[in-house]
Amino acid sequence: MRRTIYFVSDGTGITAETIGHSVLTQFDGIDFDTFRIPFVDDEAKAQAAAIRIKTCHAQTGHRPIVINTVVDPALTEVLTSSGALMVDVFAPFIGPLEQELGTMRARHVNKAHGLVNFAEYEARINATNYALSHDDGVSTNYADAEMILVGVSRSGKTPTCLYMALHYGVKAANYPLTDDDLDKMELPARLRPHRDRLYGLTIDPQRLAQVRENRRPNSRYATLEQCRWELAQADKLFRRENIPVQNTTHTSIEEIASKILSALGIEKHMF
To answer: What single DSSP character describes residue 168?
Structure first.
């Protein structure tokens, strides 16, 4: 079975898409075709979206589903005229919160992901610049690092650092364990002063070999034998140095980041 999902918003659509995808993962055996329709902030755009949704219904024979974060009820009414199943993301929360807080909500468009706090935005940019300048051992001045991810090449260090910088404003560095490091089986000298901020990442050998083969085809670097050796040595080093470690093979970057922040006791809210 295939069903069509539209994430419709008067802003970027990030909230609708994020929540919608999380909910859709609860349904097995259905293939979802998903589309985002952002910035539906006037009647003309709402009418255009409704026509698109109606056309999809006519073409597929199945009623589309709309995950909606449009705050203007008049625009939502236009969207509802499409005949789609309308799922209002905010509806279950607004009523109880208005009653509890004793005030009506302000209908701000794009408030969740707009530039509303310049200090927080600057913190994210600074953290992102830090992650880039301290990526893959480029800079090893870790005095300002809130965490340092350690692992063999292509184990997921860079994307995890960038995710935490962009979404949490965390200054995250990463250090790649080289063959020399793994032969010596001791923590590199530049990492020892920052032991309490270290966190290890590992990955299944077969997956690592696949990732490396895409990067450097037919190289020793990408052979399964080399991957197995590096990961086994890294695992021994993590255990010897009592460094917490996480396998990234079957884990989303969001979950990886959440576990790392929790393990290191870093409490920051998501931007």
So the answer is: H
